[in-house]
Amino acid sequence: MKLYYDVQYSLTKNDLTKELLQRINSVLTINRNNYNYFYLADHYYNGVSAVKRILKKFPEMEPYAFEYEEEVRDEKYTYWILSNFPKDYSFFSNVQVIEGENKDNIDFEILLKIAEGIPRSFPLFHAVFLFDQIDWSQNLGVTDDSEWGINSIRYINDWWTPKRAISLHANVSLELPSNEQNTLPLISEETNESLLLLGNIKKKSLRIQLNEKEKRSAEDLEKTCHKLIVAFRNDLSKNNPVVFPHQLSEPNEYTFNIPRKPTILKIIKKLGYKHLPKEGFHGAVVFGKLTEKNHQILLEFDSGSTFANLRCNLIIKGPYWEHRMDEIPCTPKSHGHFVGIPDLETLEKVVENFCAVIPYLENTIINDIENLYGPAPKWFNYRG
Known about the structure:
- This protein is α+β, with helices and mostly antiparallel strands and 384 residues long.
- The protein is built from seven helices and 14 strands.
- Helices cover 27% and strands 27% of the residues.
- The model has no long low-confidence stretch (mean pLDDT 86).
């Protein structure tokens, strides 16, 4: 088991790829790293090949280029990719990375020149840069390939309708405390200074990477919990064990400008939940609390794309696991779908109905899941 911080940075459309790589370069001149990885891919149906444009300007990139065939909706497409990611690189679980045959490291200056053209001259569909095995001025001596991604900086610039989706993260490893310890070891002052060179920090989260034996055990527990949740939901829908304080009906019209957060906060705090603004996303406010076993319960109140509806999703999290109960019910027959909000009075009733079912979930399925996993270490901090 490995422990590390994942540091996420605030970026805007004005943060150019070249400027971000220059920031990264300033960090890598202070902190030694072993590998510079890249993954640059065309869109499967875009007629313009950004990869071919790169090859024309930088013929030294030819060894990293290959064609890839992909089937999309029963149609086969061929497009070009530049990549030096190893085939067994598994740190990215949510980013598609197709590996090439050439695994050589590459000079940072070439990547910096390519970055100048992203996205205008080089309109890539996917662009991933990962600078791995950084020592972070802590003399970590990271050379073990099993620790891929734990001490790294990664920048992603992807096409996403109708704009680019960009993200910048830095990962820093920590010494694993004993279960009896209440606090985490501190990151060195030099490392903190390096992290600040990358930009404004948006969020810092504690992460755990499991070894293969631990992964297999976690997968077995995940399957068991999934079965528990499915059976529980079926029973909840069939037997309706919760008494809801309000009867609700589908409204004839909707209102789009009712402020949700103050009403939700006023009601939900009675259950011990606090507003977590950094966990929120477009159309949703998120509340959370810790259990006695040091697990975190999150409540996502999602207003949808029109802001005229409301639903509530419940998440229970441990140090390396997470289970969701999306769209929890707020009436005996709602089955968790979006509920229409025509006015402030209805909003209050809907939230109060959610507050009737949440304690029931905590005392039943959440309690069962916690007992399966056992308590989390006292030192684990979900806010980072």
